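Below is one such protein, fold included:
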Amino acid sequence: MPNRKFADGEVVMGRWPGSVLYYEVQVTSYDDASHLYTVKYKDGTELALKESDIRSQSSFKHRKSQSSSSSPSRRSASRSRSRSPGRPAKGRRRSSSHSREHKDDRKKVIPETSLALLVLKIKLCCFFFNQKPSENNTRRYNGEPDSTERNDTSSKVVEQKLKPDLEVERSLEQYSLRSRKEEKKKEEIYSEKKVFETIKTTEKASSKTKELEFGGRFGTFTLIFFLPATVFFLLLMCKQDDPSLMNFPPPIPALESLWDAKVFAVFLLWFFLQAVFYLLPIGKVVEGLPLSNGRKLQYRINGFYAFVLTAAAIGTLLYFQFELHYLYDHFMQFAVSAAAFSMALSIYLYIRSLKAPEEDLAPGGNSGYVVYDFFTGHELNPRIGGFDLKYFCELRPGLIGWVVINLAMLLAEMKIHHLSMPSLAMTLVNGFQLLYVVDALWNEEAVLTTMDITHDGFGFMLAFGDLVWVPFVYSLQAFYLVGHPIAISWPVAAAITVLNGIGYYIFRSANSQKNNFRRNPADPKLSYLKFIPTATGKGLLVTGWWGFVRHPNYLGDIIMALAWSLPCGFNHILPYFYVIYFICLLVHREARDEHHCKKKYGLAWERYCQRVPYRIFPYIY
């Protein structure tokens, strides 16, 4: 293994990929496996360069001074072209400056005139020797050669007549007496291609995940068991008459009572019913963001249609007196069935990812550690034909299932407490969360730009989160209210509704602002927005909601989560677990986004942080 030549922190001259230009850079790190230096340019751009593309500043300056003088051969060639034997003596007595100007004019005129004459002659020959069929027939009847014979003859004539011009053309090629604009354009196109190829090679060489999240291998191994245990703990606590922390731990039911084959069959039926709705040829088809290889995947946007069809199916079941509170009676068994299915799905996803090509692997789940890649997801977009497993699970079975579970809790409350109408608290919880789900499905296309789709692989983390955590933890308030009813007054309900409306307005308007700007920054409707340009070509908004805090959508999320919990009262902290969890989750995501954006945008992100100092909570954090 060769010794590294440049140390971390050393300021050197780095060649820009695809060009001969060197710029001042700072060495930040060195990869022993790929033998590449990671360097940082003055504008914050970070690239991986070979050692041969890096020079010390002293040697670069010495080389530059040598290359500034012309070679002897070029000087002699220049002198031989500047003086013609046939020129009169008077012309030789002209000043050197006038001679140089005349020489430059001749360089411009000769090639342009020769090229123009060449093109004109070719066009004239093509015009005279490319007659219509009727003229060919007339000449054939008059004893003249037909078009085939004439083409053979004319090609020889053209070749003889244009031979001097073709030699001039070849000489122009040899001495590069082309228009400087054409040469510059070709150089720019070639340079862009070389930069793109170099960046692709660099990405491929450094495709391994180096920075591990969630505590690395040990942390992800722990979470595989801790997350299911947390779900079961929350559900068991809600089933108690007094779900306070003083009654921890809750009584553990017998293991055989947690599994029911009939419940598992119902869960499978639900999953595959949503898969059928997903495959229906309704809704538009859009393209996602470009992948590392430049390819764009296609997605069918029909989540809202699937929700409408699901609502029609549930309505039909209720019409035929189907007891939907069956979900409440077997809630724990449904959670166990969903957890078992998500684990089986995660194992399948990891096994199939071992045969996936390198370009299809997730940038955050390609560490080489089995447990870590299994948890975070090894493959970015696993598909069975055109069926995208990650995109399907992101919005369909879990998110729509959340609404169905809430409805089942509402009906269970009415049956258990003998109510003709659901309580006001249960109505608020159902209404607020229904709005959230419908909004997500109506704006389904926006999910294609989220980190879940563009960065995270599909492994246990997302599979368990989509199929277990979302439907069974997000419905915790409704589940809690069934066993612990709360009476609230209309003024209190109105205040909570206003709070939820404020959170939803911030959440939706901030996301819409960001998505519209990403799709078309030049939209006249967005002309009022100001942004900081970055080296990637994207802009960082510094006005509107994104000039208020760095993550206004997270702020709206937290306000809504609080509004969902307030109808449960303050007797126990359990209904507010969702708020605490949501704050912790968003703070983690915010820290990950900060790290990702700082690495991606460099100095532009530092300027943005100076303009927008608060992350989520204004004047607090």
About this structure: The CA atoms of residues 274 and 397 lie 6 Å apart. Residues 96-128 form the longest helix (33 residues).
